[in-house]
Amino acid sequence: MTPFEFLNQIDRLEDLSSKSLVLFIAYYLRTNKGVLQLSLTNIKKCFQDASLKCPSNLKQIALILSKGKNSPLLKIGSTKPSFSLSIYGVREVESYLTSDKQSSATIEDYLKTAIPYLKKIISKVQEDNKRKFLSEAIDSLSIRAKRATVIMTWCATIHHLYDYIMAKKLSDFNSALSRRRDRLNRIQISSKDDFSDIKDSILIEVCKSARVISNDARKILGEKLDIRNTCAHPSDVEIHDSKVVNFIEDIVDNVIVKYKI
Q: Which of 57, 90, 96, 247 has its CA 20 to 30 A from that of 6?
């Protein structure tokens, strides 16, 4: 097994710190190549073979990992030090690999149940184009593109509100707009394109004011908009599968299906 093949099997590799990557490479060299005494050159070459950028402070990282009573690396020599993976380092890496596999298996089992369930949920949607769009959103979840699933589902929901307002509540919505004390009171909606000047958060407020939606629906949409905004921007927030499933459930049942056109 090459360094590339070994590291490529690890989920969320991009989330690992430089220290963790150095330990993984030390583990690879020990278990796959039988290298017990590691030089910085050995480690650097593994980074290159794995198509990963080697940390510029590699020596400093190795020295930090070799400090302390139960350090994951052991320092050998002083003038030109080499390193060895300690038993604590072996346990640390193997613990991560085991939990990583268990986590992946648990997620796969969950999605096997959740995705067919979500397909049944969206079958309630009357409009064919929205149903197909939501089906593609769920397909994104099956390949772990959770943020894309949330953003696509939100997009379908907002456009459903546009369609519902245009078909059944246009006069009420325009009246509510005219009562606002900001620049939006000059807007009158006559086509879907006119909604482009209204932020989603404001749209929800006006829908509630115009009694287009209930207060419960407003609360749900407000909560889901926060999740959508988190998913739309780079962040270190972990989006769990269960949250995505709940997002689709709530949106479809309490907005798209409830407010039929």
A: 57
